[in-house]
Amino acid sequence: MFLALKMSISVVSTTNSTCSALPGFHRSSLPRRFAVPMSKRSGSRRERERIVCACTTPSRNLGDELSSIDVNNSICSENLSVDRGDEDEADILIECKDVHKSFGEKQVLRGVSFKIRHGEAVGIIGPSGTGKSTILKIMAGLLAPDKGEVHICGRKRRGLVDDDGISGLRIGLVFQSAALFDSLTVRENVGFLLYENSCMPKNQIAELVTETLAAVGLKGVDDLMPSELSGGMKKRVALARSIIFDNTKESIEPEVVLYDEPTAGLDPIASTVVEDLIRSVHLKGENAMGKPGNIASYVVVTHQHSTIRRAVDRLLFLYEGKIVWQGMTHEFMSSTNLIVRQFASGSLDGPIRY
Ligand SMILES: Nc1ncnc2c1ncn2[C@@H]1O[C@H](COP(=O)(O)OP(=O)(O)OP(=O)(O)O)[C@@H](O)[C@H]1O
User: Is residue 57 a contact partner of residue 66, using CB atoms and an 8 Å limit?
Assistant: First the structure.
């Protein structure tokens, strides 16, 4: 499911009125999961802007292999290139501090802390059901932690993305499957936020959409419907929707993009294309137009080794609701941590039990 949420906090308005620049499109036709509770449909325009898309030790006795884990900061005792501590706090865009989250009786996150700095390409990995998507949604402001804090550019987020009024950072979230609006064209999907929330004229938005689609390697698809696209193309359209921004604004805030399993369901070559695309829209990359990307930092949740190797520089390993290992990608394959070794090899033998 794709979701572009913009946090400054632009996002897509889902109030129950007709779209300003998308004739005939009515927000009530949005999928039900995108609906905004009536009680939240008041307040300022900013408040009405909404999202569309929608460590303690592990509980099991894992034996000696976990004895090297520091339960306070969750860093394995291997000699790894981990977080740079107190250095240059100014470049921290998102920080999770001791985040806890439960669903009913199920404790999913049990004290997760990490920082995402300007310029970083970070992967979150770990066994299924360990809370990777949950922490992504908490970073995005779609879910609130039960305990702990999320800081955006040094400021504590008070509620969800639409409540806190924090500006200074845009956050784009690209869900696993595209979740494009089936009844809208590619152009309308990609330009949705701008049609809704910007003062840009329609022809200018259309031009920007075409340019953004070209940046992700798509040409001549503006008028197609999502049903006419392949799975890989839908992922690219979803990416375009997450990175487009109002370039007429005087100041452009940096953007962090959060990708939830962006290569899931793709064949190896299509995965490589998406992995390179993720790199290319980053500020250290070069997009399909030969221009530097605009994305300041990104976080990728993935299970795929190719994505780990190709698309990220630093890894956080989440297991049983805690970060039990972190290091650079090149340190992952050679790690002596038994959890990491089992995960990397896919072995059934080891501390991770299914
Ligand atoms: N909204 C929700 N309500 C109830 N339980 C939830 C909700 N969201 C997630 N969970 C549960 O929380 C746990 C963690 O889910 P999450 O999707 O974050 O895991 P994950 O690590 O991303 O898994 P996977 O790798 O399989 O996608 C799962 O047991 C899931 O069922």
Answer: yes
Q: Give the ligand 1 atom nearest the CA of 134.
A: 18
**Distance of alpha carbon 259 from alpha carbon 278, whole angstroms:** 9
Residue whose CA is at the smallest distance from ligand 1 atom 28 = 129
Q: Which two tokens stand for residue 70?
A: 């520091």
Q: What's the length of the chain?
A: 354
What digits encode the pLDDT tens for the residues 103-139?
999 999 999 999 999 999 999 999 988 999 999 999 9
What pLDDT score was predicted for residue 85? 52
Q: Where are the alpha helices (DSSP H) in 77-153?
A: 132-140
Query: Separation of 278 CA from ligand 1 center, angstroms?
Result: 24
Strand pairing report for 147-152 and 92-103: antiparallel
Q: Is the CB of 108 within 6 Å of ligand 1?
A: yes
Question: From the CB of residue 153, how many other CB atoms can be counted at a distance below 10 Å?
Answer: 17
Chain-centroid distance of CA 346 in Å reads 25
Q: Considering only CA atoms, which residue is closest to atom 2 of ligand 1?
A: 103
Q: Of all protein residues, whose CA lies closest to atom 10 belonging to ligand 1?
A: 103
Sketch out the chain's domains with CATH numbers: 27-81+88-345 (3.40.50.300)
CA of 259 to the centre of ligand 1 (A): 16
Quick one: which of 246, 188, 177, 240 has its CA closest to 214?
Answer: 240
Higher pLDDT, 69 or 191: 191
Q: Give the residue, by CA position, lying nearest to ligand 1 atom 3.
A: 103
Whole-angstrom distance, CA of residue 177 vs CA of residue 239: 11
Are 267 and 256 spatial neighbours (Cβ–Cβ below 8 Å)? no
CA of 113 to the centre of ligand 1 (A): 18
Across residues 324-340, what is the average pLDDT? 90
Helices (H), 155-217: 186-190, 192-197, 202-215
Phi-psi region of 158 (alpha: psi -120 to 50; beta: other; left: phi over 0): alpha
Residue 130 CB less than 6 A away from ligand 1: yes
Contact between 297 and 303 (Cβ < 8 Å)? no
Measured from the CB, is residue 128 less than 6 Å from ligand 1?
Answer: yes
Residue 69 has pLDDT above 50, yes or no: no
Closest by CA to 215, choosing from 268, 119, 311, 292, is: 292
